[in-house]
Specification:
This protein is an alpha/beta fold. It has helices at residues 41-50, 63-73, 86-97, 111-118, 161-169, 224-237, 244-254, 257-280, 302-311, 336-354; strands at 28-29, 80-83, 102-105, 123-126, 145-149, 176-179, 200-205, 218-221, 283-285, 292-297, 314-315, 317-318, 329-332. The strands form 3 sheets. The protein has a 7-stranded mixed beta sheet, with helices on both faces. The protein has a 4-stranded antiparallel beta sheet with strand order 9-10-13-12, covered by helices on one side. It has a two-stranded parallel ribbon with strand order 1-11.
């Protein structure tokens, strides 16, 4: 830390990206919740075309993307704001709407707590009930902005729309943010609730089901009034936040829903088969509505399984904290071939450890 750093940033704990990039070349990456499939050929083609005009600034409003998403979800383009990944949208939301604090589950996407600390936002972490988000625990949050990942990460469990609606209705003074990064893999989207509630924001990403994690593209859908607030924050900080090639890739992905749907169906089939196979090996595996599984073995520690797999150049995600999930590992679903290799190695580990 240099002597020039502002003191308010001296105790920051950045988001952990260890093992997620260059150092993992040659590994089977089941630790980052990316798609194992390449982007749509149409996304690649559109992005290549856009590269020809990179001497010009990109469209700050992402107009073509906004029009396409508005058409898909029966919204107005003015209800949609884009971010450099949904993480940037979350950053805007913490900046704009957390004056009275924030609330989110105690086991969830770790970036919420990081953003709260970065912006000096007082936050309340709400316990899960059997790894599920219980709406009864979110009554009267006193104007705090509520962040709920649905499906939740790393637990993979989804809330019903009635439970999400219960959180909204029991907190009339609070903004409710539903982070739907993994919704395409099995959960119901809260987008149908937008016409009923002007206190709802839904965030989405192209990183998971649409195979564009490296492009960095996310968006939110909300009321026109809230979208205008978010857009003001965005345009003050970073008006050209989505480059032209990423915008084009996103449009290509949206125009190739058949490709996306085929990949989602494959991931769901492989996920369910992997869950069954792991259960046969003595694992407890939570039901999953996401592109990953959350699992622990009956007699082998999560750390042991993680480190043993790493020796075979297979990476999964282990969490040492909080203690409640220290025996669990999060396993991203890869290609059928990758998951077959993973299962074969896990079978050997469990047989050796339990002999």
């Amino acid at each position: 830390m240099s002597k020039f750093l502002h003191t308010k940033y001296s105790s920051l704990t950045p988001y952990d990206t260890s093992g997620e990039v260059e150092s993992m070349k040659g590994y089977i990456r089941l630790n980052t919740n990316e798609s194992p499939f390449p982007p749509s050929p149409l996304a690649v083609e559109y992005s290549h075309r856009a590269s020809i005009g990179l001497n010009y600034y990109c469209d700050p409003e992402c107009s073509q993307l906004a029009a396409k998403i508005a058409e898909m979800y029966s919204l107005k383009p003015s209800q949609i704001v884009f971010g450099n990944g949904s993480d940037e949208i979350l950053n805007f939301l913490f900046m704009a709407f957390c004056e009275k604090g924030a609330a989110f589950p105690n086991i969830t996407y770790s970036f919420y707590k990081i953003l709260a600390k970065f912006h000096g936002v007082d936050c309340v972490t709400v316990p899960l009930k059997g790894f599920r988000v219980d709406p009864s625990y979110y009554r009267d949050m006193r104007g705090r902005t509520i962040f709920i990942a649905n499906p939740n990460a790393p637990t993979s469990l989804a809330m019903s729309l009635s439970d999400i609606e219960a959180v909204i209705t029991s907190n009339p003074a609070s903004l409710v943010v539903v982070d739907e990064a993994y919704v395409d893999f099995g959960a119901d989207s809260a987008v149908t609730l937008l016409p009923k509630y002007d206190s709802l924001v839904i965030t989405r990403t192209f990183s998971k089901s649409r195979s564009l994690a490296g492009a960095r593209l996310g968006w939110c859908m909300t009321s026109e009034e809230l979208a205008a607030d978010i857009r003001n924050i965005k345009n003050t900080l970073t008006p050209y936040n989505i480059n032209a090639m990423t915008q084009a890739a996103g449009l290509g992905a949206l125009e190739d829903e058949e490709y996306t749907r085929r990949n989602i169906d494959m991931i769901r089939r492989v996920r369910d088969n992997t869950r069954t196979r792991l259960q046969e090996m003595g694992f407890e595996v939570l039901d999953s509505s996401a592109n990953f599984l959350f699992a622990k073995h009956g007699s082998i520690s999560g750390e042991k399984i993680f480190s043993s797999l790493k020796k075979y150049k297979i990476m999964i995600r282990h969490f040492s904290n909080p203690p409640a999930i220290a025996d669990y590992n999060r396993i991203t679903i890869g290609t059928p071939e990758q998951m077959q290799m993973f299962l074969e190695v896990v079978k050997g580990i469990t047989e050796n450890e339990t002999e």
